[in-house]
Each structure stands twice: as structure tokens, then as C-alpha cells.
Design goal:
There is one protein chain. This protein has three domains: 3-89, Rossmann fold (3-Layer(aba) Sandwich), CATH 3.40.50.20; 118-180, ATP-grasp fold, A domain (Dna Ligase, domain 1, 2-Layer Sandwich); 184-393, D-amino Acid Aminotransferase, Chain A, domain 1 (2-Layer Sandwich), CATH 3.30.470.20. 32% of the residues lie in helices and 26% in strands. The strands form three sheets. Strands 9, 10, 11, 12, 13, 14, 15, 16, 17 and 18 form a ten-stranded antiparallel sheet that branches. By secondary structure, it is of the alpha+beta class. The N and C termini lie far apart (59 Å). Helix 1 (11-22) packs across helix 11. Adenosine-5'-diphosphate binds at residues 117, 140, 142, 147-150, 179-182, 184, 187, 210, 213, 252, 276-277.
């Protein structure tokens, strides 16, 4: 029996652990948070900081192979253990180093002629002040490391905003990229699975919407022309190959109808395609593969980690599946912060909701990903509306009843 270590024990780790268990593996979770949801389904779990060498050593000693479920894992400790030599870490630490740092990630895109929005690398406030002249607006500054769900991002609509930022110095150390804010037509993502023997599989393209920079809904398959889907898949596969990746690579894309400042965008039938960023792990937009495709992102990663041959994912139905994230806000709207206390009765009348996944997080906070619903529709519009309506109903469930009681 193989033992797989997962660094990070959030919902992605939880769902990966279930797929691993179905293939007979044991799972060990390592997470600094004592209430990480994946602990529930793990054989063993560690609670220690990313930099605790002793704990990392103990963890690694139990594992045959190691992966991670979020890219902000600190790699300094892992590098010291030199695990890459002894126990495989998939994807490799060099892939993690490139994709967890926006400067390296953008440089990788540029060096490999992959399409990316126009950007500058920023290494200090002084240097930013020097290049300020050449920057056009609107633009977005993103810290090189540590950002997720829009954290570590600053939007500058006009030059005065950037000048004020340089004056105020809100971040203790400035290491960032500053990129063109694109007039987005849509956002897409695509997940590639690649095994140690270079076998590649690719999932159908997903179409994403964001609210306050957090993923709000995902539609699978994306409602886009076949030529655009083919281009996006081609770029995702090229990126995975160039990274020499073993594991999953999620590639996020921006699509515009205008060329923008970048000279590297790829055009297909009037759509301009840019790579936004990579995640070398299962992805929120890939939850849908548990419903929409014959094999899920978690199943394929489990197969790669356990050296089981992969199968190409195929769409299961002629229609569309839509995921709507349930953030802590839904709990708060029902007047509770307790994760277990969501009232689900409103789903009774939402017959197109074909799946509900609750991550088992103990406490709900605004913006925290707590679960998701998945709907099925014959058309993209029907699927999206069904998922949004169901979520709205959950958010209203208790407040409506409380109102009626008054
Ligand atoms: P995160 O790591 O938080 O996912 P992203 O770079 O993907 O960071 O940004 C989150 C969201 O913010 C994107 O999905 C998109 O909706 C918006 N965004 C980010 N960069 C740009 C940009 N250059 N132009 C327009 N919108 C952007
Ligand atoms: Mg993103």
C-alpha cells in the first residue's frame, strides 16, 4: 500500500485524499492549521509550521510520494530536506518555485513565447518611481508571492493612484509585477494532467466569473467557439510540457476582444488570449470535473501519484454543468458563523442542483470558501441561472423566515 503526503489540508486536499483512498492509498496531511478539513479523511496528519524541519522530516519519512494542494507552501524547508532526491514531490519544487512567484511566472511565459499581458517587474519603491513614466493606466500591481483570491493586489485607475502608492509605501517590502488591466471579455481555465512517463490528458475548458477577485461561478464546458477552446488547450499543454510538469497544471486565461498593449497575445477569430497565471495543483474551477467528466481532476492526480495509467477525461452529458461557490457570506446571511449550521432546506425546490459539497470548515468568514453547489442545464444559461438561484436561495433561507416570523 502506498502512502501519499499532501502539503496543505484544505478542500482540495480533502477531495484529493478521497480519490487516493479509493485507489487504496493512505494519506498523510501536513498543515499548520489544526482544523484543516482534510484531516478528517487522512490516515495521519501533522500540525506544524512550513518551516519546522523536524516535523517535515517525520512527515516525509511516512510518505512514498508527496504533493501539495496550494501553491503558497513555503519551499525553503522542503528544499533543506532535499526531498526531491529521495521522495518524489509532484509537481517538482522547481515547478512550484516558478509558479508561486509572479515575477518568475511572467518571465517563464515571456521566455517561452506564451501570451501574457504587458507587465513590468518591480523590485523596490525606488525602482517603481523610476519606471512610473512608462506605465499606462489602468494597471494592477500584484505582489510576487503570497497572493490568492485577489490578496496582494492594488488597482491603479490613474497615474495619481500609483504616485500615492509610491508615497505611502503600504507594503514593507516591494517585490511585484505591475500589469496592464485588461478589458476582460471572459475568463477561462484549463487543467492538464501529466504523468512521470510524459503521458498527457486534458480536461474540457471551463469558463469562470469572479466577484471581488474570488471565483464565483464556473461553467463546464465553456460556452465558446471550438477554435478558441482548441487554442486554450494547446497553450495549456505547451505550458505543462515546458515546465516539465508531473501532476496537474491549471492554467488561467484572460480573453479580450481588443489587442491591448501586449505584443504576445494570441488571436483566434477575434478573441485575444492571454495566460493569467498557473496553479500546479487541483483547482477550484476543476471541482466540476467530479460531475461533468468521466474522471475528475482528483482522480487523475491520484493516478499520477500512484503510478496508475491515466484515462482521457470525457464530457458526460450533452448539456452544461455550473458550479457556484458557497462563501462564508452565505452562512453569515443565515446569521451563523458555525460551519455545520447551514440550513439547506431551500434546496428542496432547486431540482437542477445535482451536487452539493460542503468542505466541513468549522467557522464561516466573509470571502472564505466553504462549499459549492453544482447545477445541470441543457443550455449554458439555464445551468448558470440554476446555480446562482440555488445559492441566492440558501443565502435568503433564514432571513426570509426570520422576517416572516416578525
Ligand atoms: P489570484 O491569485 O488572486 O487568483 P489573479 O491574478 O488570478 O490572482 O487575479 C484574480 C482576478 O482578478 C482575476 O481572475 C481577474 O478577474 C482579475 N484580474 C487580475 N488581473 C487582471 C488584469 N490584468 N486585468 C483584468 N482583470 C484582472
Ligand atoms: Mg487567479
Amino acid at each position: 500500500m502506498k502512502t501519499v503526503g499532501i502539503l496543505g489540508g484544505g478542500q482540495l486536499g480533502l477531495l484529493l485524499a478521497l480519490s487516493l483512498s479509493r485507489l487504496g492509498a493512505r494519506v498523510v496531511i501536513y498543515d499548520p492549521d489544526s482544523s484543516a478539513p482534510a484531516r478528517k479523511v487522512a490516515w495521519k496528519s501533522f500540525q506544524a509550521p512550513w518551516t519546522d524541519l523536524n516535523a517535515l522530516k517525520e512527515f516525509a519519512a511516512l510518505c512514498d510520494v508527496i504533493t501539495y494542494e496550494f501553491e503558497n507552501v513555503e519551499i525553503s524547508g522542503l528544499k533543506k530536506l532535499d526531498l526531491d532526491g529521495e521522495k518524489p514531490i509532484y509537481p517538482s519544487l522547481s515547478v512550484l518555485a516558478t509558479t508561486q512567484d509572479r515575477i518568475f511566472e511572467k518571465q517563464f511565459l515571456q521566455e517561452n513565447n506564451l501570451p501574457v499581458a504587458a507587465f513590468f517587474v518591480v523590485q523596490s519603491y525606488d525602482q517603481l518611481a523610476k519606471i512610473e513614466d512608462g506605465i499606462t493606466f489602468p494597471c494592477i500591481l500584484k505582489t510576487a508571492t503570497g497572493g490568492y483570491d485577489g490578496k496582494g493586489q492594488f488597482v491603479f485607475e490613474k497615474r495619481a493612484d500609483l504616485v500615492a502608492f509610491i508615497k505611502e509605501k503600504p507594503l514593507p517590502i516591494l517585490r511585484a509585477v505591475i500589469e496592464e488591466k485588461l478589458p476582460l471579455y471572459m475568463e477561462l481555465s484549463c487543467i492538464v494532467a501529466r504523468s512521470a512517463d510524459n503521458h498527457e490528458c486534458i480536461f474540457p475548458v471551463a469558463q469562470n466569473t469572479h466577484q471581488a477577485q474570488i471565483l464565483d461561478t464556473t461553467l463546464m464546458p465553456a460556452d465558446i467557439p471550438a477554435a478558441l477552446a482548441a487554442t486554450v488547450k494547446d497553450i495549456a499543454l505547451t505550458a505543462a510540457e515546458k515546465l516539465n510538469l508531473v501532476g496537474l497544471l491549471t492554467c488561467e486565461f484572460f480573453i479580450t476582444r481588443e489587442r491591448g498593449q501586449s505584443t504576445s497575445s494570441v488571436e483566434v477569430d477575434g478573441y485575444h488570449v492571454f495566460v493569467n497565471e498557473f496553479a500546479p495543483r487541483p483547482h477550484n474551477s476543476g471541482h466540476l470535473t467530479m460531475n461533468a467528466t468521466t474522471v475528475s481532476q482528483y482522480d487523475l492526480l491520484a493516478r499520477i501519484l500512484l503510478d496508475v495509467p491515466m484515462v482521457e477525461p470525457r464530457l458526460l452529458a450533452p448539456g452544461y454543468f455550473c458550479l457556484a461557490n458557497l462563501l462564508g457570506d452565505v452562512w453569515l446571511a443565515q446569521g451563523t458563523e458555525e460551519g455545520a449550521k447551514l440550513n439547506l432546506q431551500a434546496l428542496k425546490t432547486h431540482v437542477d442542483v445535482v451536487d452539493l459539497v460542503l468542505y466541513g470548515k468549522e467557522s464561516a468568514r466573509a470571502g472564505r470558501k466553504m462549499g459549492h453547489v453544482v447545477s445541470y442545464g441543457v443550455s449554458a444559461k439555464e445551468a448558470v441561472e440554476a446555480a446562482r438561484d440555488a445559492r441566492a436561495a440558501l443565502g435568503q433561507a433564514v432571513s426570509v423566515r426570520a422576517g416572516a416570523a416578525q
